Amino acid sequence: MKIGIIGATGKAGQSIYGEAIKRGHKVVAIVRNKKKAIEILGSNSDVLEVDAFQLSKRDLEDFDVVVDAFASSPDKAYQHVDLTAKLIAMFRATDSPRLIFILGAGSLRTGEDKHLFVEDLREIPGSEKWISVPKNQLKELNFLKEVDNVNWVGVSPSATFEPGPNKGVVLGKDELLFSANGESHTTTGTMAVAVLDEIESPKYRRERFTVGDAG
Hints:
- The chain has a single domain (2-213), classed as 3-Layer(aba) Sandwich (Rossmann fold), CATH 3.40.50.720.
- Helix content is 32%, strand content 26%.
- It contains seven helices and twelve strands.
- It has helices at residues 11-22, 34-41, 57-60, 79-90, 117-122, 132-144, 188-200, and strands at 2-6, 26-31, 46-49, 65-68, 94-102, 109-110, 115-116, 150-156, 160-162, 169-172, 185-187, 208-213.
- It is globular.
- The model has no long low-confidence stretch (mean pLDDT 97).
């Protein structure tokens, strides 16, 4: 398949790009800085150098799948919603490309009362410096939930999301996942495997799922 990855040099994007290449797909890194992408992804990388907000339908319509792994600084966290709205608007009433959005853990539910995890994140000292990102990723998911004529799927990691190899994929729906040792953790390698598994063998359509490490 032909897969485009917006934000392919970011934390999630790098691992998804590498996993897709390993599985033999034709992968294009969609980034603002081609030189940086080649340094990170390799000299043989296929790169489309363009700001995500300048992408046109023509840029994307030949892909089978477009992965939105875009990340913003906290002061521009609203861009998560803006880019999602732009991509959805491009492909209204179409079935291809399939749009996959890498979301946050803040929109997952946890605890006996099933509250949103973003409420716990707000209580962390110093969260005012970055809480806008998970808050806007929640808005992004809420927007997507109202979209019923585009082929989209969302993916959320567990509470801690950090670089690392695949540690075994555990899937869930809307509740924060915890491993047997009580940790809520997802590596980028685990996320990448889950995303490529979903691309190759779709199980979800117009809904969000979550992925955690098995151990």
